[in-house]
Amino acid sequence: MKIADIRELSSDELRGREKDLGDQLFRMRIQKSMGQLEAPAKIRTVRKDLAKIKTILNEKGRQ
């Protein structure tokens, strides 16, 4: 996800995406521990997307 795309979303949409990415990351960590994860590099991209969303939410909260 690009920052410009994330900034266009509303706070409610961002919170929903934050929850979805958190759940996805949790499932991926479990799959990794069981040796069933097909794309381990995807964990990194999900973590980065989650951090971007949290950053934008924090910025919107300060305004």
Poorly predicted regions: none
Biggest β-sheet: count, sense, barrel?
none
Give the helix level as a range of percent: over 70%
Number of helices: 3
Number of separate domains = 1
Question: Whole-Å distance between the termini?
Answer: 23 Å
The strand count comes to 0
Average pLDDT confidence is 94
Give the DSSP E fraction (strand runs of 2 or more residues): under 5%
- CA gyration radius, whole angstroms: 13 Å
- The best one-word shape is elongated
Instruction: Find the CATH topology.
Output: Helix Hairpins
- String of helices and strands: HHH
Q: What is the CATH architecture annotation?
A: Orthogonal Bundle
Explain this structure to me?
There is one protein chain. The chain is an all-alpha fold. The protein has a single domain, classed as Helix Hairpins, CATH 1.10.287. 81% of the residues lie in helices and 0% in strands. The protein is built from 3 helices and no strands. It has helices spanning 3-7, 11-34, 41-62. Helix 2 runs antiparallel to helix 3 (41-62). The radius of gyration is 13 Å and the shape is elongated. The model has no long low-confidence stretch (mean pLDDT 94).
